[in-house]
Amino acid sequence: MADLATLGLYGLGTMGSALALNILDNGFALHVANRTATVTNEFVEEAGPLAAKLSAHDSLEAMARAMPKPRAIILMVPAGGPVDSAIEELCAILEPGDAIIDAGNTDFHDTRRRTALVEGRGLTFIGMGVSGGEEGARNGPSIMVGGTPAAFEGIRPVIEAISAKFNGEPCADHLGPDGAGHFVKTVHNGIEYADMQMIAEAYGLMRYGQGMTPAAIGAQFEAWDKGALKSYLVEISGIVLQAVDKQTGGPAVDVIVDRAGQKGTGRWTAIEALKLGQSASAIEAAVGARSWSAEKSTRVLGESILKTPLLSVDLAVEDYENALLAARIIAYAQGFRILAAASDEYQWNLDFARIAEIWRAGCIIRSALLDDISAAFRGELPAGQLVFAPAFAERLQAALPALRRVTAAAITGGHPVPAFSAALAWIDSMARGRGTTDLVQAQRDFFGMHGFERIDGPAGCHGPWWD
Ligand code: 6PG
User: Fold this and answer.
1) Partner of 45 at 20 to 30 A CA spacing, among 363, 424, 455, 461?
2) pTM of this structure
3) For the chain, which domains are there?
């Protein structure tokens, strides 16, 4: 795809229409279509003056046939079956030089499979992670592209133009072949889950342990957003906690059922981490916490049967701030470890500094830490571990005591803090040269003759258990 392609976008739901308006706003001509034509008509109206460069079509097929070649068609349809159906339809119409771009939250295994399928038919396939929610899609998301470098060149001008900018630099790039872009987006979401959960844990302890009102906690978040915790998620948490419900006049959070939804990306991150021989404990904990939250009636029953006391806690407000900072660093570090393991496994040659850079604006996990993370990846990084980079090791040494105090107080008081405690358990494991799996190895040898490695050299040894 050497020439700049004609652009088409299929799927005008919330994210699709926002991305389409963004493309038009940046001066590019765009063809659009949707499964139902009424939605397309509504979109044309919504586009107003932007519709000047818009060509609307009744169906995917009509759009693909009407577009001048080479064509690049962005799919903004739900992940899974709808993507396969659209690809099948397009493969029958498109010709070499044309590209299909899946911009949904797709499982990277599907992207790898589809890349082989579509490219096997002489077309180009791009798996593109887009982060930033509706607002980001409309005004500048962070964009993570997977595919061949040549494929990226064909769409680079439009992708860079519509992306968020950090100090004028586009938060979009080609990250690697086939599934690399979707994998990086999946891990982004895993980190998003962990960060959201840890913020919620701090809120829970401040509210139910420390007796603070949602508004007071929200004001605290607002203040933290001006310091080391500066980030989109802390910012919106501050706004949300200070919001008032119009019907009750009470805190808006109090009218929300505490049952979290999840579409799969957090779970995929945890699963892929395990498959790659890792354990992203903070991310796993966040996924688990959402699943437990969904068991609302069981929890209500548990409260009446188990009757565990919920004790008050008395911590300095700075402890919560530092606990969140330490835990956030750990969540990012775990995310980058998964990226490193996948990069090795799939030979993607991911550039971690670049990934941190394109997460600095537009995406949901954007935070002040990411600029420092990219600098750390460009500098001295012992064993490739973010938490060992001098700037982060120092921050952790300063902030970990607060994470311990917060976690210990929560555990003693009966307040669940799964992500905080999982983050702490990981960093404490990484901070000990000798742990306790000598005993696990001995047990394995005892019951299964699995053998162990002796500290003085030889492997495959057995203990004196049966002598
Ligand atoms: C983003 C978000 C976005 C979406 C997730 C949330 O980066 O813009 O992550 O992709 O909000 O799908 O997923 P859950 O529904 O699983 O929380």
Assistant:
1) 363
2) 0.97
3) 6-178 (3.40.50.720), 186-430 (1.10.1040.10), 437-466 (1.20.5.320)
